[in-house]
Amino acid sequence: MLAAAKIETPFSIIRRRFRKSAPGKFGLALTILFVALALLAPVLRPYDASMDGNLSEKFQAPSVQHLMGTDDLGRDIAVRVWHGAQISLRVGVISVSIALFIGSFFGFLAGFFGGWFDTVLGWITDLMLAFPGTLLAIGIVAISPKPSLETTLLAISIVQIPVYIRLARGSVLGLRDLEYVQAANALGANRLRVLFKHLVPNALTPLLVQATLSIATATLETAGLGFLGLGAQPPTPEWGTMIADAFRGAYWDSAPWTTIFPGLAILVSVLGYNLLGDGLRDVLDPRAVN
Amino acid sequence: MGFEDFPRVHSPQPIKKGFLLTAYFFRRLLGLVPVLLGISILVFSFVRAIPGDPARVMLGERATEAAVLQIRKDMGLDRPIVEQYLKYMGGLFKGDLGTSIFSQIPVADDMKRRFPATLELSLAAMLFALLVGVPLGILAAVRRNSSVDNIAMAIALIGVSMPVFWLGMIMKYIFSISTKIFPPSARMDDILSFSFVPITNMLVLDGILRLNPAIVWDAMLHLVMPAVALGTIPMAIIARMTRSSMVEVLSQDYVRTAKAKGLVQRSVIWKHALRNAMLPVITVVGLSFGGLLSGAVLTESIFAWSGVGSWIYEGISQRDYPVIQSGVLLVSFVFVVVNLMVDMSYALFDPRIQYR
């Protein structure tokens, strides 16, 4: 029996399990499609938002020429939504990477060393989590001198940091007292080496799942801040900002396509991340049934 | 008479447990104090860090330097920051939250008017979330891996991925602009509101208290769309949570025993399984309140709902410091208190939880 069993690396187990996860596959496909669209946008259709617009073609309903219609300045919605993908992806990935890096770094240290550092960090996370996320993001954007995409990115990133601190701390705490760690300690390994060489690689899984799901939240929050006028500013083709333009310009009801398509783009991309995250969690969760 | 005097025949456990529970609640309440203080300090310094001088904002760009200085002095802005904070906190305990720079109305008055509006909206949203989310989750769990399950979970997944403000606009387009089923915005019909004096400013409740069915109906019609928009994300989260929790409970031995005894499935699900499956759902409901309160900022601005969310938003765009400060403080306080209540209810309902 044992001889017949193929040697399975963790990676091949993951791949095999992932292939069985229908939502995961669908999410991965959506995400790949979306990332490809975002990356190809500047290559296939260079676009300068401030130069765009043809007033003689304003408020056209969707047609073969303009697949998603045109807005109040005669700009092609499809092109703007397409380029919005790039913005959305950039904000999502960068903000989550910053939060993941900073949050888990401090979380690992706190979980591993404990003591006063853990206590103080605990207070800070508690305090940050005492504010509803979006509200905290709004607050951070409000104290920046001028709303922009960069401040949005920073705000969304800061809001997510405590989540990663908690997660990283928790997973290191769960591993800290296992035998292989004790063995490394007994062999006289340097404390930091034990943490980063032996503990961190085993603690990364929940963080990566969370990161995928966080990109979904980040995308929604970017759009929300954009809609409130606190994020990207016109003429940037950010999806939330586009919807805000239509809403405040009071043409969203007479030309609904100006609102429908950017919103659909938000919905579909967030759906992709969520599906992918769910799939990854099913696959990577050690308690999941094989 | 001490504890020793009680007959030992009855297990001493309940007494000890009740005592521990009270002690636990008390300690949690005490633990609230530093968090609330921390929030107030954070919000206070945050608001001070917002660029732009409130005195300058108030008087406009062309005001003389002397006038600005005078206003700064009147508002106490020339005092050291610690003194300003202490003065603000002192006022807070007396119910004085300052005056809106923009409207010159005492902030406390505005808050009294707007908080019930947001509370009404949040409660309605949560009601929608529970009424749709819980049955959806149960249905999915009971018919696990069937097409019913797939459809229910697809709805839930779309729900968690939904940009709330967009959903609000789409609903408004379909149900107000195209078909005129629901009123597009505001909390009450203009004509009705002229002759109506609210009591609590939760209008549905006020309509009931004043025994005025026309008001109740009108307020409810206005409430439907904002509540559904705001409640969609919690609905989806609750549906997912209910499903996974229910699936776990349904696979447990006692449920199998109940089935083996020949109980009808309905009774097994509703009487035996659901009660235990609802514990994690309670947590989700509590945690979702934070999302509701921040989601209110977006929803209220779509539906011109004069609640705390739109208040904070207007405060930020007008650089109205006392308003932002009080609004954000209020929301965070409510959030922290609701979370605490969830923790406590958890401790109360789940006998497995130990309090130390």
Describe this protein's structure:
The complex is a heterodimer of chains A (290) and B (356). By secondary structure, chain A is mainly α. Chain A contains ten helices and no strands. In chain A, helix 2 packs across helix 3, helix 3 runs antiparallel to helix 4 and helix 3 runs antiparallel to helix 8 (191-227). The longest helix of chain A has 37 residues, at 77-113. Chain A is elongated. Residues 1-13 of chain B have low confidence and may be disordered. Chain B has helices at residues 13-49, 54-59, 65-74, 81-93, 107-142, 147-160, 164-178, 190-194, 203-209, 213-250, 253-260, 265-302, 308-317, 321-349. In chain B, helix 1 (13-49) packs antiparallel against helix 14 (321-349) and helix 7 (164-178) crosses helix 12. Chain B contains 14 helices and no strands. With 356 residues, chain B is mainly alpha-helical. At the A-B interface, helix 4, helix 5, helix 8, helix 9 and helix 10 of A face helix 1, helix 6, helix 7, helix 12 and helix 13 of B.
Quickly describe the structure.
Chain A has 290 residues and is mostly helical. Chain A contains 10 helices and no strands. Chain B is built from 14 helices and no strands.
Number of helices of chain B: 14
General form of chain B: globular
| Overall helicity of chain A | over 70%
Q: Could you say which structural class the secondary elements and strand pairing of chain B correspond to?
A: mainly alpha
Rg of Cα set of chain A: 23 Å
N/C terminus separation of chain B: 26 Å
Provide the helix percentage of chain B.
over 70%
**Which consecutive residue ranges of chain B, at least 5 long each, have pLDDT under 50?**
1-13
Q: Compute the number of helices of chain A.
A: 10
Q: DSSP strand (E) fraction of chain B?
A: under 5%
Q: How many strands, what sense, and barrel or not for the largest sheet of chain B?
A: none
Tell me how many strands of chain B there are: 0
Task: Report, as a whole number of angstroms, the end-to-end distance of chain A.
Answer: 19 Å
Number of strands of chain A: 0
